[in-house]
C-alpha cells in the first residue's frame, strides 16, 4: 500500500520516499518484498521490449500486481527508470527479458542513485534558524530514556529550567511513572523534551514496571530523537545493555545520543572519563557526552550534539509546510488581540487517591496517556497534556491523589501532594473528581481551597457504573439527588456549582464534562461594563430595603476591575462607610442571578469615598480627612474581610 500511494505525493516528497525505498531494497535484495513464486510475467509485447519503455506509455498497476513478484519488480523498474538514467532499453535486453533478478539488481543498484535528475525545490527557510520564534507544533520531540535512577528527571528539569518533575534518590523505587512533556530551552535551541520512567526489560508481566515500559515504547514510536542516559559513577550496568537492545528493537530508525550523567568528578586529571567513555562505546551508539544534570556541566556539548539533527528536521518541516501553504501564508503569525475566554484553558483534575482521575484524563484525551490501575497512589508526577476541543486549546493536568501529609513524611508521595497544590493554584478551572460510592472530608478541603483561590469549580462524580443494577437502582437516583445538595452545603459561598455524573472507565460523560468546563471558564473570564453595572445597581437599590438610610452607607457606583475571577469595586459614602456582611451577600447573589455568574467565585471590594466639605477646609486638613476615611475592604470568597 505504501508503494501504490507514492504517485499521490508531491514531487519533492515522492523523490525522498522513492530514494529511501530504493536504498533499502538495494541493501536487502533478498528481503521478503521480492520473495514469492513467479506466477506472472513482466508486461511486454512480442518484441521483448517492456511496455513501460515505450514512448507515451503510462503504466497502471492494481493491488493484485503489487502482491506478485513480477508485479513488484515491474513497478520498481518503472520507478527506477524515472529516477535512474543508468538503466536503458539496451541494458534491459542484454540482461535477458526473463532474468528478473538481474533486472532488479540493475534497477536497485545504489550507483544509479547518483544519476538521479535533480528536482528543483523551493527553499523558504535556511540556516541558522531562530528557534525562539518557532511555533511549538514545528518542534521535534526528544525523549529521555535509561534505566532507573540515572538522572532523567533531573535533566528534564534542567532543560525546561523549572523543577516540574519529581526528583528523589530512591535506588529501590521508581519515582517517575508517567511521561512528562515540556519545552526544552538549551541555549538558543528549542525542542519538546519527554521524561520517561526507568526501564527494566525483565519486569514481571502486568506489573507497574512492565506497564510503564509499554507506555514508553508507544511514546518512543512518535518521537524523532532520543537521549540515552547512563550513570557515569556506576559505570556501564547490565541494565544499560538491556536498554540498548530495547531501543534497537522498538526504535531501530533512531540513533540515540549517549549521555554520561553525574560526570562532574570524572575530569580529575586521571583517565576516569576515557575509561567510562570506552565502556559506553560498547553500546554501539557512538561517542558519549559527559554532563551533570544537577550542576549544569556539559550542557554546551549536549547542545552541539543535538543541534545539527534538530535543525535539519525543523528545516524539512518548515519547508514542507511552506510548500503546502504557499509563499503568501508561509510564516504568518496572528497579531490580533485575543479575548481572555479564547486563551488556552488550564484544567486541573484533582481528588483523593483512586477515584479515577487518570482514567478520566485518558477518557478526555481518548488515548492511554497516563498510567492507570487498581493500585492507590499510582500517579506521582503531575502530568500535563495538551489537546483541542471544539477549536479551543486545553491543557489538562492530572495530579496525584490528595492526602493529608504528616510532618515526618519525606517520601515521594509527600512531594506529590505539594506539587498537586501548586497545580491547583495555577489552573483556571478545577475538576474535582468524587467516588460515587463515597464522599469524604478530603473532597470538602479541596473544594474550599479551589474556591478560596478564586478558581472555577466543576464537580465530576465518577464510577457511576458501579451503581447500576437492580440492587443499586435506588442508590443511583439517591446519589444524583444528594451530591449537589451536599456540595452546596459544604460550600455556601458559591451557589450553583455544576455537578456532572460520569463513568470514565466506560468513556461516558466525556462531552458533558468538557462543555461544562468551557462554560465555567467563559463565566470566569466574563467582563461587565461600568454603565451596565450602574444600571443594574439602580434596580438593585430599589429592591433592597436599606434600614435607617441616614446611617447606612450609600453605594455611589460599581465597576469591574478585573476578571479571572470577576472582581468588582463598590464605591460607598455615608457615616458608617462600610457594607454589612448581609449586604455584601445580597450584592453577590444579585450579580450571579442577573448576569448568569452561578458556579464561580466572585470578589467584591469596598472603597469608602469621603464627602466633600466645600472650599472652606484647607488642603492639608482635607488630605488628612481623606486619609482617615478612605479605606479599602475586600471580601473574598471565604467571607473574610480585609481592611487596608
From TrEMBL:
It comes from the Eukaryota. Gene3D superfamilies: 3.30.300.20, P-loop containing nucleotide triphosphate hydrolases (3.40.50.300). Residues 608-644 are annotated as: Disordered. Pfam families: KH_dom-like, MMR_HSR1. GO terms for molecular function: GTP binding. Residues 527-605 form the GTPase Der C-terminal KH-domain-like domain. Keywords: GTP-binding, Nucleotide-binding, Repeat, Ribosome biogenesis. Residues 619-628 have a biased composition (Low complexity). GO terms for biological process: ribosome biogenesis. Residues 142-262, 347-463 form the G domain. CDD domains: EngA1, EngA2. Coiled coil: none annotated. SUPFAM superfamilies: P-loop containing nucleoside triphosphate hydrolases. Belongs to the TRAFAC class TrmE-Era-EngA-EngB-Septin-like GTPase superfamily. EngA (Der) GTPase family. This is GTPase Der. It comes from Linum tenue.
Amino acid at each position: 500500500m505504501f508503494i501504490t500511494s507514492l504517485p499521490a505525493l508531491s514531487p519533492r516528497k515522492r523523490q525522498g520516499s522513492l530514494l529511501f525505498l530504493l536504498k533499502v531494497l538495494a541493501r536487502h535484495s533478498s528481503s521478503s518484498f521480492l520473495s514469492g513464486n513467479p506466477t506472472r510475467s513482466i508486461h511486454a509485447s512480442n518484441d521483448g521490449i517492456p511496455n513501460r519503455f515505450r514512448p507515451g506509455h503510462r503504466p497502471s498497476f492494481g493491488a493484485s500486481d503489487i502482491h506478485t513478484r513480477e508485479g513488484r519488480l515491474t513497478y520498481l523498474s518503472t520507478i527506477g527508470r524515472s529516477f535512474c538514467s543508468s538503466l536503458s532499453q539496451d541494458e534491459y535486453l542484454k540482461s535477458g527479458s526473463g532474468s528478473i533478478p538481474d533486472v532488479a539488481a540493475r534497477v536497485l543498484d545504489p550507483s544509479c542513485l547518483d544519476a538521479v535528475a535533480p528536482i528543483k525545490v523551493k527553499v523558504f527557510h535556511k540556516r541558522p534558524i531562530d528557534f525562539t520564534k518557532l511555533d511549538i507544533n514545528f518542534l521535534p520531540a526528544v525523549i529521555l530514556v535509561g534505566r532507573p535512577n540515572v538522572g532523567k528527571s533531573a535533566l528534564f528539569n534542567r532543560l525546561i529550567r523549572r523543577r516540574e518533575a519529581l526528583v528523589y534518590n530512591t535506588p529501590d523505587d521508581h519515582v517517575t511513572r508517567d511521561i512528562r512533556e515540556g519545552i526544552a530551552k538549551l541555549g538558543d535551541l528549542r525542542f519538546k523534551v519527554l521524561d520517561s520512567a526507568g526501564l527494566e526489560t525483565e519486569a514481571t508481566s502486568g506489573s507497574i514496571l512492565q506497564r510503564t515500559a509499554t507506555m514508553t515504547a508507544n511514546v518512543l514510536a512518535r518521537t524523532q530523537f532520543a537521549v540515552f542516559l547512563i550513570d557515569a559513577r556506576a559505570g556501564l550496568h547490565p541494565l544499560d545493555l538491556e536498554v540498548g537492545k530495547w531501543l534497537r528493537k522498538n526504535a531501530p530508525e533512531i540513533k540515540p545520543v549517549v549521555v554520561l550523567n553525574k560526570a562532574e568528578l570524572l575530569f580529575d586529571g586521571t583517565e576516569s572519563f576515557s575509561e567510562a567513555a570506552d565502556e559506553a562505546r560498547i553500546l554501539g551508539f557512538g561517542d558519549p557526552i559527559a554532563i551533570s544534570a544537577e550542576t549544569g556541566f556539559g550542557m554546551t556539548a549536549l547542545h552541539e550534539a543535538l543541534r545539527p539533527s534538530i535543525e535539519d528536521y525543523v528545516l524539512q518541516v518548515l519547508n514542507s509546510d511552506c510548500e503546502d501553504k504557499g509563499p503568501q501564508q508561509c510564516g504568518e503569525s496572528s497579531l490580533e488581540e485575543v479575548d481572555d475566554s479564547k486563551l488556552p484553558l488550564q484544567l486541573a483534575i484533582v481528588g483523593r487517591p483512586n477515584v479515577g482521575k487518570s482514567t478520566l484524563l485518558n477518557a478526555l484525551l481518548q488515548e492511554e496517556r497516563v498510567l492507570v490501575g487498581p493500585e492507590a497512589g499510582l500517579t506521582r508526577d503531575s502530568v500535563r497534556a495538551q489537546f483541542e476541543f471544539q477549536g479551543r486549546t486545553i491543557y489538562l493536568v492530572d495530579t496525584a491523589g490528595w492526602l493529608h501529609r504528616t510532618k515526618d513524611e519525606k517520601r515521594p508521595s509527600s512531594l506529590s501532594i505539594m506539587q498537586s497544590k501548586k497545580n491547583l493554584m495555577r489552573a483556571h478551572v478545577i475538576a474535582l473528581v468524587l467516588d460515587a460510592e463515597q464522599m469524604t472530608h478530603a473532597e470538602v478541603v479541596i473544594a474550599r481551597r479551589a474556591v478560596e483561590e478564586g478558581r472555577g469549580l466543576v464537580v465530576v462524580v465518577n464510577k457511576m457504573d458501579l451503581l447500576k443494577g437492580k440492587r443499586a437502582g435506588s442508590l443511583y437516583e439517591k446519589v444524583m439527588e444528594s451530591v449537589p445538595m451536599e456540595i452546596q452545603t459544604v460550600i455556601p459561598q458559591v451557589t450553583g456549582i455544576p455537578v456532572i455524573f460520569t463513568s470514565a472507565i466506560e468513556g461516558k460523560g466525556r462531552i458533558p464534562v468538557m462543555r461544562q468546563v468551557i462554560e465555567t471558564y467563559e463565566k470566569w473570564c466574563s467582563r461587565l461594563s461600568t454603565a451596565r453595572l450602574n444600571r443594574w445597581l439602580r434596580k438593585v437599590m430599589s429592591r433592597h430595603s436599606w434600614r435607617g438610610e441616614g446611617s447606612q452607607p450609600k453605594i455611589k457606583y460599581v465597576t469591574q476591575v478585573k476578571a479571572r475571577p470577576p472582581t468588582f469595586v463598590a464605591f460607598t459614602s455615608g457615616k458608617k462607610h462600610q457594607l454589612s456582611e448581609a449586604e455584601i451577600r445580597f450584592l453577590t447573589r444579585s450579580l450571579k442571578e442577573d448576569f448568569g455568574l452561578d458556579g464561580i467565585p466572585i470578589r467584591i471590594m469596598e472603597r469608602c469615598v469621603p464627602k466633600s466639605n466645600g472650599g472652606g477646609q484647607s488642603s492639608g486638613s482635607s488630605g488628612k480627612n481623606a486619609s482617615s476615611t478612605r479605606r479599602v475592604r475586600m471580601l473574598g470568597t471565604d467571607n473574610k474581610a480585609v481592611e487596608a
